TrEMBL record:
Family membership: Belongs to the glycosyl hydrolase 1 family.
Domain of life according to the entry: Bacteria
Keyword match Electron transport: no
PANTHER family referenced in this protein's UniProt entry, alphabetically: 6-PHOSPHO-BETA-GLUCOSIDASE, GLYCOSYL HYDROLASE
Protein's recorded name: 6-phospho-beta-glucosidase
Swiss-Prot/TrEMBL keywords: Glycosidase, Hydrolase
Residues the record marks as active site: 375 (nucleophile)
Coiled coil ranges: none
InterPro entries assigned to the protein according to its UniProt record, in alphabetical order: GH, GH_1_N_CS, Glyco_hydro_1, Glyco_hydro_1_AS
Any matching Pfam family: Glyco_hydro_1
Species per Swiss-Prot/TrEMBL record: Clostridium gelidum
Amino acid sequence: MNKNTFPENFLWGGATAANQCEGGYLDGNKGLSTVDVIPAGKDRFPVMLGKMKMLKCDDEHFYPSHEAIDFYKNYKEDIALFAEMGFKTFRLSLSWTRIFPNGDDINPNEEGLKFYDDVFDECLKYGIEPLVTIVHFDVPMHLVETIGSWRSRKMIDYYVIYCETIFNRYKNKVKYWLTFNEINMLLHLPFIGAGLVFEEGENEETTKYQAAHNQLIASAKATEIAHKINPEFKIGCMLAAGNTYANTSAPEDVWKAMEKDRENYFFIDVQSRGEYPNYAKKMFERMNFTLEMEDDDEALLRNNTVDFISFSYYASRLTSADPKINAETEGNVFATLKNPYLKASEWGWQIDSLGLRITMNSLYDRYQKPLFIVENGLGAVDMPDENGNIADEYRIEYLREHIKAMKDAVNEDGVDLMGYTPWGCIDLVSASTGEMKKRYGFIYVDKDNEGNGTLKRSKKKSFDWYKKVIESNGEQL
């Protein structure tokens, strides 16, 4: 390998999620999912936080997931465009309720299974390796209503049946699997991360950590089953990553930054090392909280660690020990101060390409397992010119600098990196805001925030740029 190249088998591609691109929210016998009841507009965050109960759709709100960009009907065209860019891999998620409409069904929905068969076949036709997220912010609404979602241990059994079904069905089509998308999001947006709706007087922190334990056990069981069904399977965890910097060199600020990082490492420490770290045990002690565990939970976690660490990276974070200074920047799910050394996106996400290299080194030093960057990108307003062209130089610049940082981590620091799938390779609905105008894609989709548009696909300038990047294995930036 030359000093400045990526490995020959490096998995270049792009990433999406079913709830943000698929649409067809009740087509093919699909059941209602948590993401289907999250509206756009002012009520979006209260619902995602589990503070506002919205268990059904109403006529007063607009629900972006219902049509999204209608990948359900347009997947052949979209995958052909990915192939034209030269994708080696395509990260997508399965909709749990497309396969088990209620979550506790006796038999899976054949129409849903067949849809994903067709999608995988289309990928494989072009030599594109599917990278599949099993749960990407996606819980059957029926299980939220009947058992309280991931606060209940019963969820593990339903998740395991779902995993057994898809592992057996797609064992010759899919090799790479992620058990939960951004598993640490459960602490920040509990309804989106785990289908949690809090009751009045409930201890929200202990509920979240019990739900987290249930997801961690589910992930370990899935890993165990996957390796039995097909020893060639590679199972990864998935973290919303980005190191937290201290606001000053005051030791209190440095300590606060370390605490913030641990909050996110917590999940991956368990999934990658196979046990709860001591800092987490001490935290539970201070909370006067005992996890509800079964006898074989610890052995299960210990014996079924993940094969690789996947993560999203959009921005670094900044924190202070002084509560007066610690204010949130607009648009971020994670509380962070404004870093005076960084520029920010139109949504207040701070652009820090060196932060990606720092994050990669932190994760690789900590776990010594292969890494996979499965989300990274710039959300921006793209305005077509009079000919319908979009010269998204700002996106090219963002991705170029992050790929350079990736290259440095691999070649200068020796980080083992499997692949790179920028987020929203085709425009899709924003998870945080529900907007269409916050675009990430190399491919423009004609649709606005209110759901109007033709859904016509067209290539942006970044499309041809990324095609050259892949062709040259990251040499031509």
